[in-house]
Amino acid sequence: MNVILETSKEDLIEQLAEWGEPAFRAEQILQWVYQHRASDFSRMTNLPKALRERLASNWRICDMEVAVHQATPTRDAEKFVFQLSDKEEIESVVMRYHHGVSLCLSTQVGCSFGCAFCASGAFGFSRNLTVGEIMGQWYRIQQVLDEEDERVTHLVFMGMGEPLANFTNTLTALRRFQDSEKVGISYRRMTLSTVGLIPEIERLAAESLPITLAISLHAPNDYLRSQLMPQVNARYPLKDLIPVCRQYAEKTGRRVTFEYAMMKDVNDHPELARELGVLLGTWPCHVNLIPFNPIDGASFAPSDAGRIAEFEEVLKMMGVSVTVRRSLGRDIEGACGQLRGRRRKT
Length: 346
Description:
With about 350 residues, this protein is an alpha/beta fold. The chain is about 35% helix and about 20% strand. Strands 3-4-5-6-9-10-11-12-13-14 form a ten-stranded mixed sheet. Strands 1-2 form a two-stranded parallel sheet. Strands 7-8 form a two-stranded antiparallel ribbon. Helix 6 links the parallel strand 10 (about 190-195) and strand 11 (about 210-215).
């Protein structure tokens, strides 16, 4: 069955034309879906009844359902597990900050890169998400937020999977999220995280979209990074990755963020902070220190608050822009893949 969230406006117009319907019906349908989050075609009251019935017989609006919904006691974070049409599951997280409501999206079922500290790849890689499945996470969650009169204001592609390994579908979703006729979120309010796939970073830079690029770094040298992220660092070592990141910043006018999960006695020594400062220098980039969120089966523990503060201070003294990310969602298994992994074990 066809899915509206999977379909471009042009393809929808073509389908309607085969039914003898005018092109403007496509705009009406998409407005109901994207602006009003209509739960079914019967609500689209400005469409002829016969068309609504035909749509209901041949199309679905969204092809995924909420399987689990958890919230922290303070509701600063909410975790969603979605079941897809093939029974696979993915996760998304809503995070509330002073600047708005951020939605962390998945782009793949599982992950193929096998980073030592990450729950997403613990059960391997199944497949890429379709455009409709990427969009569907926003659609289902925004339906929930509508009940509280809230709106997703920022998107972060940091959920399950590697966004740039699903390049075409991720790029199409980015464009639809930005489209004012659909979701209407500015590119400047989108962040895309990658383990550092150099050819795809270059492809993304060529699109000249003002999206913030976040590099999953976690180590200031190849020796340590190869222990934490063996697959990707073997292909794209730091000596090749950092110059490409600088080129991305120059091309898009957006500073690059380097994500650094702080793991006790692994990558949190002040000497490593000095090494990181030397690696990055003073070009327009930013380091985001992330208190590590422990996961089942991993031998890593979160760094002490004092050690994180010391690491941060060293970077500041070296002229590197740095912040410590506010930790959200630990009590709802907020790290990517945690809740899905526990459900697969039961």
